[in-house]
TrEMBL record:
InterPro entries: MFS, MFS_dom, MFS_trans_sf. Gene3D superfamilies: MFS general substrate transporter like domains, Multidrug resistance protein D. Residues 1-20 are annotated as: Disordered. This is MFS transporter. The chain crosses the membrane at residues 30-51, 66-84, 96-115, 121-142, 154-176, 182-202, 214-234, 246-264, 284-309, 315-337, 349-369, 494-511. It is a multi-pass membrane protein. CDD domains: MFS_MMR_MDR_like. Pfam families: MFS_1. Keywords: Antibiotic resistance, Membrane, Transmembrane, Transmembrane helix. Signal peptide: none annotated. PANTHER family: EXPORT PROTEIN, MAJOR FACILITATOR SUPERFAMILY MULTIDRUG TRANSPORTER MFSC. Its main location: membrane. It is found in: Cell membrane.
Amino acid sequence: MSTNQPGKVSAEPRGVAGEGVPDARQRRTILIAVCVALMAVIASVSGLNVAQPDLAVTFGASQSTILWIINIYTLSLAALLLPLGAIGDRVGRKPMLLSGLTVFGIASAAAGFAPSAAVMLAARLLGGVGAAIIMPITLAVITSTFPEGERGRAIGVWTGVAGGGGILGMFLSAALVDVAGWRWLFVLPVALVVVALTMTLRSVPDSRETSGRTFDTVGALTSIVAVVGLIFVLQEGPERGWTAPATLLSLAVGITAAGAFVAWELRRRDAALLDVRLFGERSLAGGSITLLVVFGVQAGIFVVLFPFFQAVLGWSGLLSTLALMPMAVLMMTVSGLAPKLAARIGPRATTATGILLACAGLALMAAIVSVDGGYLSVLPGMLAMGIGMGLSMTPSTEAITSALPRERQGVASALNDVTREFGTALGVALLGALLSAGYRNAIDSRLAGVPSGPADAAREGVANAVDAADQAGPHARVLIRAAQESFVDGWQHAMWAGVAVMAALIVYVLARGPQHPIRTPANEPEPADATAG
């Protein structure tokens, strides 16, 4: 890869002033720029969750519509990551990043001023498109700009923002909703976009790769259909029912499209959008599976923690989000330190250590959580989870980016992001279902003597039980206590399932994880057909 410098082709990007590799200060500026852009995207994934009641009141919308306003952003983001990542490799990473930031900023502003649910849905859809342009490019800029000795640490910072940024975004969003109102949620992403645009224009070098092959349009389209179908199942299955016609149809379409995508990519071989043969290698398969599981468990943890803080402990949304910050801070800090440990003991040992710690954190939460123990009964497990996820995410991300060649770094970054999105959707669906099932199985035996109306409401969930307590008369305290204790029982079911999944992942990583220090493809010799961007 080379940059936009007339008359020269080099193996490393040139600095913004025209001299060789960007110096240390420029590299820091580049890293800050792409992380600010990434933060805008990540914060918008979860930010609206804290404003669901306000949105329903403003638009007079049903809960189903509100969920679509939230989920359509993730759906469009996940579906377009691979095609747009590949396009970014071809047309140039800097212009793609600038385009993505512009689209995302316009969409965020439109959402903030949306007069109706329909306009809000359209704005969120457009925001997902912009986010799908931004996310893969930010990581591709890092892998193609930083020299080998600093690349791991830069990826660690990026990984920390990707992992912990959602929690930070939720905290800031909850604060804005409490202080000003839900429309102010979109001030944060717009402000981040302005900063990222300014820094990108001034500091981020341009680069593109040419392979001499036509763009894989069929692969791009089938990947979009597959991702939309499968993500729709995971998002809508818990709401509509896993055997509902729409759910089953979406599952069939998703699986069929995924099979068609794999078959087509095998046929295209080196000209494929994503060379699926590479999944036979340790790095790509191990990194992808690890991120899928780790992000799935992380998302499932949030499904459990928020109702615990709000409905069981009675905390506000802002305080509940603040309670997650210790885990987020540890995750982000350790992600930046993980490359040093990986260089010393190897990526496989580092990843396995992180997964072991995360598994221990889950077990701690499952074993000692209680209504009376409150926050202190879950804090040790949260801290162990934060350290463990920070250790495991960075080597896994490096494993994915190192598995694809230089000219496919946008695709590699997109694959990393798609894996995270699938893991998140899968974790929410499965651990959320286990929590609900455990709650329903536990609460019936605790509702003796409670009037049928409040009892039926309590069976729907712990938040419903708290809302129905006023109708239970002298049984109100019994009703609330029954719901809280049943929620803890459901929590334990979900967490022990997570422990089992993480234990299986440890065995897999020890057997199939990357054995040697990772060398990313941006350090390889410049291919003959790379051209200046």
